[in-house]
Specification:
- This protein is mainly alpha-helical.
- It has 2 domains: 275 residues, no CATH class; 141 residues, Leucine-rich Repeat Variant (Alpha Horseshoe), CATH 1.25.10.
- Helix content is 55%, strand content 1%.
- The chain contains 20 helices and 2 strands.
- The chain has a two-stranded antiparallel ribbon with strand order 1-2.
- It is elongated.
């Protein structure tokens, strides 16, 4: 089976798809892809990473501008980067020194219509913009693309942000360019531009360019949740040696905005916590019972069990899930998925695997729980109990919830060799 799971994880972590012109990452599409992964018996557990963290890229409401963020003071923002005046140097497309070929391509591409959060990839001018790489790599186009980030037209800014992320180099390490990218982020009010601009800000080497304090302020206070979420999803991974970036990501797990919380809790999985594995595991442990957001709690359970470096904390996870089940709060398929992962982990202790098996059975048998959660537990039963799992699943082949019955029958069906 192709490792579609890896492709999903990579797509989420980098907030991109193969074509930069299709920057939009749509959770609905990813859920469909995930369904293909989990249609296989062993992989048919809950989606393994927080797709919801990228859901901001699938809604049309961001075009209207920023949403109010509870308990946060937005940074002072402009309606858009200021238009040229008699006392100003021309900016954006009109800035002096721009590469004429890039400017001409951008002028043609900016007439392409929006398709959700991205400019339509069926537009010929947009395709030409995406494919124009010869002579523009290795940072040669960076000054022009940074200038385009300062244009008053959100389409031009979107084109600049996505292409600079795709082919840029110097902007991430040279302070004058980096500071202009940060200024563009501070002033941005378009939800459509916010998501790719957040990824672009994360590309900055914040210590080398001296931009961390300003980037941090954007991550904490900016009025666009799309921008903040895509920034926090990538910042620590792109700056793995910067302790302050790690601590900022940890802080934002408790952010008032849900998109930001989900982006932060998932950010540690994709190499964002690679240099501080014990701290990463501790963050997930601290959020196993997150009272602020049940999605953060379920994701913390799954990532802790899946990461492969948190075996010392399996006991805490198992204890948390036992208490959760006692009070009827096993409300996500991620919980049995995380138990199945412990059973599969060769480094887990036998007693931990036995406890996980017991909990998986109890979840499947608990008729007060959602049918999808119980169905995921059936998958877990086969993983945790290879010898007796099929006999256990047979008990549910006539269970009243149609979903549970269908899942049991499907799991018992002989698989093609």
């Amino acid at each position: 089976m192709p490792r579609l799971e890896d492709e999903i994880l990579r797509t989420i972590s980098e907030a991109r798809v193969p074509s930069v012109f299709t920057f939009e990452v749509c959770a609905a599409t990813l859920h469909k892809q995930a369904g293909e992964v989990i249609s296989h018996a062993r992989m048919r557990l809950a989606l393994l990473v927080p797709l919801a963290a990228m859901s901001f890229a699938c809604t049309d409401d961001s075009a209207a501008g920023p949403r109010r963020v509870a308990s946060r003071s937005a940074l002072p923002t402009l309606a858009a980067p200021s238009a040229p005046t008699a006392s100003n140097q021309p900016r954006g497309l009109a800035a002096p020194g721009n590469d004429a070929q890039l400017v001409e391509l951008a002028k043609k591409a900016k007439v392409c219509p929006w398709s959700g959060q991205a400019l339509s990839e069926e537009c010929a001018a947009g395709i030409a913009w995406t494919n124009a790489n010869e002579g523009f790599t290795a940072g040669r186009a960076d000054p022009t693309l940074v200038s385009l980030l300062e244009d008053t037209d959100e389409r031009v800014r979107w084109l600049a942000a996505t292409k600079l992320h795709a082919i840029g180099a110097k902007f991430a390490t040279e302070r004058p360019l980096a500071e202009r990218v940060v200024a563009a982020g501070e002033h941005e009010t378009s939800g459509r531009v916010g998501a790719p601009l957040g990824v672009l800000l994360a590309d900055l080497q914040v210590e080398k360019t001296g931009t961390f304090d300003r980037v941090r302020a954007i991550a904490v206070k900016h009025a666009l949740p799309q921008l903040r979420a895509s920034l926090v999803a990538n910042l620590s991974r792109k700056n793995p040696g910067v302790s302050a970036a790690f601590e900022l990501t940890r802080e934002l797990v408790r952010d008032p905005e849900k998109d930001v919380r989900l982006a932060a809790i998932g950010a540690f999985y994709m190499r964002g916590g690679g240099k501080r594995p014990e701290d990463t595991c501790q963050i997930w442990v601290q959020n196993l019972d997150n009272e602020m957001d049940s999605d953060v709690a379920s994701i913390a359970n799954e990532l802790l069990s899946r990461w492969g470096r948190c075996q010392a904390f399996y006991g805490a996870l198992l204890e948390s899930q036992a208490k959760r089940l006692e009070v009827g709060r096993t409300d996500s398929a991620r919980y049995p998925a995380s138990l199945a992962q412990i059973c599969e982990d060769k480094r887990a202790q036998p007693r931990e695997k036995e406890r996980a098996t017991e909990l998986v059975h109890k979840i499947a048998e608990n008729k007060t729980l959602d049918a999808e959660v119980r169905a995921a537990a059936l998958d877990g039963a086969l993983v945790c109990d290879p010898a007796g799992g099929r006999d256990f699943v047979k008990k549910f082949a006539n269970d009243p919830p149609a979903l549970l019955k269908t899942r049991a029958i499907d799991l018992l069906r002989p698989k093609p060799r």
